[in-house]
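Service request form, structural biology core

Requester: graduate student, group of Dr. S.
Request type: structure prediction, single chain
Budget code: on file
Notes: please return the result as structure tokens.

Sequence provided:
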Amino acid sequence: MEYHHSVLLKETVDGLAIKPDGVYVDVTFGGGGHSREILSRLNEKGRLYAFDQDEDALLNAIEDDRFVLINENFQFMKRFLRFYGVKEVDGILADLGVSSHQFDVPERGFSTRFEADLDMRMSQKSELSAYQVVNDYSQGELQRVFKEYGELTNSGAIAKAIVEGRQQEAIVSSNQLKTILKRFLPEHKSHKILAQIYQGIRIEVNQEIEVLKAFLEQTDKVLKQGGRLSVMSYHSLEDRLVKRYMRDGLFEGQPEKDFFGNVSVPFKIIGKMVVPSPEEIKRNNRARSAKLRIAEKK
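Core staff response, request fulfilled:
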């Protein structure tokens, strides 16, 4: 089984404007598709550092003297690059979201297709799992998760149903969760709603929004002037953060203006947002929601 189909592979790496002797970072190594493409464009002086918190991804490590794979969450990018003596890089690539491998291994609990224990941890070292979110969170906390991260309009009713359901017995498996929420899953759109419920729980388990913010705030400190940031996201919550940070260097509010009314922001947007072609979506349905944005450090 192939570990992961790299979405917009050429476009994402093209966005980095690779220098053959440059230093690059792939913060979402996964199956190594993007990393292999970057390495193919580097000469013997070039270097690539990759991050992946998922232990399964270590099996895909590339045997190459120019390559280092770091088994850590990319929110610690700057710290671990410093550990390897790297203060500045020429480009950073991030392919956000869940890998095909994580979706396709039933016991990881990411997919709505399989019966599995409630897990959804991207790192097996993480203490918080989907089981704890579903069984230990208060009704108010669950409502927040489904409203903010699942973008569900009936988040309160879904949270209430889970709290009532778990009073009978602990909710251990995906089938139990689906049974409790059956009335919210009309046949014609059950997959979409269930995917939103899963998305909310998964984002909470892995603290994906906070991790993304922490990562983005490090990019302009790690990139050299003229260095490129190439980020692909798969849902609107991530894409809004990426878009705002590339445009304003902030997630909220407006960038400060100087005495003359000029705005100082760390990045310059390169080109327009890129989405997969109909052909790519046909080959890989998971590509359908991908959005690629590219920026250059000023």
